Amino acid sequence: MQEVMPGIIVDPLIKGGKPVIKGTRVPVELIVGKLAGGLTYEEIMAEYDLKKEDILAALRYAANILVEEQILLRIPNEFTITQTNELLLSSLRILREVDIVGNIVVIEPRKIRIRKRRIKTS
Predict the structure, then answer these.
(1) How many Å is the maximal CA-CA distance in the chain?
(2) Which of 7, 38, 40, 48 lies in disulfide reach of 57, CB 3.0 to 4.6 Å?
(3) Rounded to an integer, what distance in angstroms lies between the CA atom of residue 9 and that of residue 7?
(4) Do 61 and 89 belong to one domain?
(5) Are residues 57 and 78 in the same domain?
């Protein structure tokens, strides 16, 4: 069992390793889905025997996952090496404007993928 965020655990023996509310078998995705479907906190709390803090932990976890982004740069075939380098450099400058935990650059034929992860803001 690993606590990936306060109140959220991942355990291969519980729900196949999906993130769940600590001390329960209730998956984060279920809570977020129920909220998106229009259920209130109170209805979810009653149905799954949760506290408001549990629901907020699920929402914090989901928000943290959404922080991860991907930028895809498509490089036109007619671009020269200089133009391609300028495009890549300008994209990396954009990445520096946010706090980065880590990034991965994948270079494929005629496209570059930059996967970044921002630092959580409290």
Answers:
(1) 62
(2) 7
(3) 7
(4) no
(5) no
Helices (H), the chain: 28-36, 41-48, 52-66, 81-96
**Both 37 and 77 in a single domain?**
no
Q: Residues 119, 100: contact at Cβ < 8 Å?
A: yes
Region of 59 please: left (phi>0), alpha (psi -120 to 50) or beta. alpha
42's tokens: 């109170």
Give me the pLDDT at residue 106, please: 59
CA atoms within 13 A on the CB side of 102: 1
Domain limits at 113? 69-118
- 73 and 49, same structural domain? no
Q: What is the mean pLDDT of each run of 10 residues along the chain (122 residues)?
A: 91 90 96 94 97 95 69 71 74 54 57 57 43
The Cα-based distances of 110 to 27, 82, 84, 86, 93 in angstroms read: 40, 14, 9, 14, 20
Tokens 């671009």, residue located: 79
Q: For residue 73, give the 3-state DSSP assignment.
A: strand
Q: How far apart are the C-alpha atoms of 119 and 121, rounded to whole Å?
A: 6
